[in-house]
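Tip: read the tokens left to right.
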């Protein structure tokens, strides 16, 4: 089978994981690296013995007939120009989260993708973490009965990582939710199996070097009556944690501890699920291989990837609404933003 060609725009920290993932799947290979600093691209070409072009201008790469998929790994605030140009070039797209920092930019991306009918996957990469995949299957099996509450937290003192200083810039990174807490909001929506209707949020600014409040607590009301809760904090001095809670009429899950007597007859206490947890902020720990292979499956088999840009737009609408709620001190309806997307 002919291999699908991949290109990466932006050769920073996360780009290496895409290099490895594309090279490890025999159905694809890296054909181009795009970086404003060619030395950043050159280190990956040499480290992984890539036979690919290196360019500083994405427009020349987008003219390459041997490139079928483009991973956009630039700073958040410039995603849109590259996503739109890639869609117009007829190439499939991996979009690093957040896809954009404004509703207007999300709308521009969706319009370009819809018009050109390319496939997208948004890098909410924890969809391929074993614990989250197990939770998804347990929900499908009805292990929890009627789920009435879901909670997911993103707790990571990310601004202490000196080689990621751009995370502290409001212009480049946006807010705590857009920077990284969107992972938790995505998981909330995924596990709730319905859309958010309204959010109320509160935030706090502590003494830290970032330009936006580093802690935000969000309460959510879902359209089918479920409730949800999410805490994002870059401020707490603690190891990274991605807390998950699923509460149902027939069972409960707290992180990797499961109580589901409907499935496990006679169970009288929580049992631990033995699998890889999502408790690391190191991108090398994240399952990019699963994400890339999923997109390749969908391209080859003509299926729709998940989560794609259409689904991710709903996650971003929740983030935008939560940020507005925290800033205004009032509950915010998701429709205020979904109408803009």
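Filled-in amino acids:
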């Amino acid at each position: 089978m002919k291999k699908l060609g991949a290109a990466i725009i932006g050769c920073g920290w996360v780009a290496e994981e895409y290099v490895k993932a594309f090279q490890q799947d025999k159905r694809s290979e890296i054909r181009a690296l795009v970086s404003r600093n060619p030395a950043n691209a050159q280190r990956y070409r040499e480290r992984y013995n890539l036979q690919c072009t290196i360019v500083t201008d994405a427009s020349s790469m987008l003219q390459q007939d041997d490139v079928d998929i483009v991973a956009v790994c630039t700073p958040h605030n410039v995603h849109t120009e590259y996503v739109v140009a890639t869609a117009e070039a007829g190439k499939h797209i991996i979009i690093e989260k957040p896809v954009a920092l404004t509703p207007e930019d999300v709308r521009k991306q969706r319009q370009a993708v819809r018009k050109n009918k390319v496939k997208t996957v948004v890098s909410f990469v924890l969809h391929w973490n074993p614990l989250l995949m197990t939770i998804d299957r347990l929900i499908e099996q009805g292990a929890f009965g009627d789920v009435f509450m879901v909670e997911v937290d993103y707790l990571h003192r990310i601004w202490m990582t000196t080689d990621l200083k751009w995370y502290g810039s409001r212009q480049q990174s946006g807010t705590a939710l857009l920077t990284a807490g969107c992972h938790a909001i995505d998981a909330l929506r995924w596990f709730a199996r319905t859309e958010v209707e309204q959010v109320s949020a509160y935030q706090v600014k502590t003494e830290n070097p970032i330009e936006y409040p580093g802690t935000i607590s969000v309460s959510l009301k879902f359209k089918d009556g479920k409730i949800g809760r999410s805490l994002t904090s870059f401020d707490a001095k603690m190891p990274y944690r991605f807390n998950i809670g699923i509460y149902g009429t027939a069972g409960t899950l707290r992180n990797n501890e499961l109580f589901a007597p409907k499935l496990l007859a006679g169970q009288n206490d929580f049992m631990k699920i033995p699998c890889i947890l999502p408790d690391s902020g190191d991108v090398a720990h994240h399952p990019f291989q699963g994400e890339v292979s999923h997109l390749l499956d969908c391209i080859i088999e003509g299926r729709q990837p998940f989560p794609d840009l259409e689904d991710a737009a709903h996650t971003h609408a929740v983030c935008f609404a939560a940020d507005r709620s925290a800033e205004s001190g009032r509950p915010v309806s998701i429709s205020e933003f979904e109408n803009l997307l």
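The two ends are 38 Å apart (CA to CA). Residues 309-328 form the longest helix (20 residues).
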